[in-house]
Structure formats: structure tokens, C-alpha cells
Amino acid sequence: MNQFRKGTRLALVLTICGLLLSCAEPADNAAKSNEEKSENQKPKIALIMKSLANDFFSTMAKGAETHQQEHSDEYELVVNGIKDERDLSRQVALVEEMVASGVDAIVIAPADSKALVPALRRAREAGVVVINIDNKLDQEILEAEKIEIPFVGPDNKAGAKKVGDYLAKQLKAGDEVIVLEGIRTSFNGTQRRLGFEEAMKAADIKIADSQSAQWEMSMANTLALSMLSEHPKVKAILAANDSMALGALAAVKNNGKAGDVLIVGFDNIAAVQQAIKDGQILATADQHGDQLAVYGIEYALNLLKEPQAKLEDRETPVDLVTAEVLK
């Protein structure tokens, strides 16, 4: 009887072992399958920009989408933008939404150099690669938040100085000009203002007034009309982006000073290219908006492949655009 029981127990143990082994094999296979799926899954990159109503950012979006289509086997792309340049809360929300959706990287043109840093720190803590393009994040805030986020973009001060230097050649010492600034808490806006100021100082040209139109065409139009009335001797308007240059152009026409007041901008959007060809705007700076996001995306892809790579800023081209260049 005891031998029978021992035999029965042995058979039962062997049966259970067989069942466990048969169950373990599919589980191992499933784990391997999940690993392979994870390895083969394409990274998802979110591009978060400022206002898509601005032609510069719609051009940026198209450039990024074209690049993704040409490299569709390498990554997926999600494109986002905000209603206008001042909608900071929505841009912060977009960062949080993209992190929650599980993106691998965020390439962002921040609407503000300071306000976006805490949200981007949280993204980095969640394991998301973050690349800053167009408008550089504030270095002091980055240090306070104890994070490194590389910047990919042009030297805005140098680009604005190129435009200012070209304008100065059309003026004479002692002439008066006015400046339409971007958002003052934006690094690129500050750098462009400084570039304009450096060029005017070198040519002994007086800046009669300098105010922020917050990158907006309609605000630039209103401000320029007021400034032209207050400073009737003004010979030129330096606008920190092309949307504001177009607003200034409308103001000059309404003021009856078309052809008498020169206008320069920054961004090289299509409407300003045409205005330069037509002799209505003197010059602008091209920071190659169609490629700017692409530079950031390519950097993000490299960091996803080599997560231990050193984080370094990368300077991109900025070129003077005049009627001669557009011929």
C-alpha cells in the first residue's frame, strides 16, 4: 500500500512539474516577444511650437512633417502648437499631455524662456528626452531646477545685427529709428533687440523708441502708428519678427509714409519675402524655419540611441535676406 502511495505521489509530482514547465515556456516566449516588440517599436517625438497662426511656425511644422515622412521607418511625430504667442498655460499643458501619452522625446520652441522650465524638468524626470529650439531657455532657471536641456538654434543677436548693419548702410549718422520688440521674457526677443541696438550704436543712429508688440502683427500695427505719430522724424522701423514687420508696414502705409520709412524684420516668412521683392520691406533674417525643428528632431533621435551622450548646444545658420538675395 505504501509503495502504491509513493508511486502515486511521484506520478503527481511529475505531472505538476510537467504542467509548470509547459506553462513556463509560453511565458518566457511572451516575455521575449515583448522585448522584441519594445526593441522594434519606433520612438515617438512630440514637436511643441508657439502659435501656428504665425507663418514661421507653420513652415516649421511642414518641414518636420516632411522629414518624418522621409524617415517614417525611424520615428513617429506628433505636432502641437498654441493659439497665440502668449498662451503659456496651454503650452505647459501640452508638455504634460505629451509626457502622459508616453512620448520618448519633446522638441520645443518655448513661448517663454522661464515659465516652461519646471514642466520640462518634470518631463526629464519622467525619462523623456527634451530638446530646446528657437527660443533658448533661461540658463539661471535651468540651473535652479538642476537640469540640462540642450539648445538647437541660431545666434539671434548676430542675425539681428546683420539686419541692423544692412539697414544702417541706407541711413546716415543721427537718423532716428524705432524698434518693435518681441516678448521681453523670451531669450530670442532680448537677443534680437540687443543685436539691433549694437548695429545702431555702431552707426551712430538714434533709437527714438523701443516697445514690445509681443510678436503680434495687430499689436505691432497699433504701436507703430502711435510711435510714428510721436516721432515724426523716424527713418526706419526694426521689427524683431516678420509678423511685426508686416504690422509696421501697414502702419507706414496708413501714416502716408510708404517709401519714406524703411522696415526690416526677422524670420523670412513668405509674405515678407514678397514684400522685399516689391520694395516694401528692406531686409529680414532667415533662420531656416523649415529645418529648425528637423535639427532638433535629429538631435533627439541621436540621444535616444545614445542616452549617455554629452548634452551640448548646437548653433544653426542665420542669413541676411535682401532683394539682391531673392533675385
Verbal overview:
The protein has 327 residues and is an alpha/beta fold. It folds into two domains: 44-153 and 289-316, Response regulator (Rossmann fold, 3-Layer(aba) Sandwich), CATH 3.40.50.2300; 156-286, 3-Layer(aba) Sandwich (Rossmann fold), CATH 3.40.50. It contains twelve helices and twelve strands. A six-stranded parallel β-sheet has the order 2-1-3-4-5-11, sandwiched between helices. Strands 7-6-8-9 form a four-stranded parallel β-sheet, with helices on both faces. A two-stranded antiparallel ribbon has the order 10-12. Helix 9 links the parallel strand 8 and strand 9 (262-264). Helix 2 (55-70) crosses helix 11 and helix 8 crosses helix 9. The longest helix has 39 residues, at 2-40. The chain is elongated, with a radius of gyration of 28 Å. The protein starts with a helix and ends with a helix.
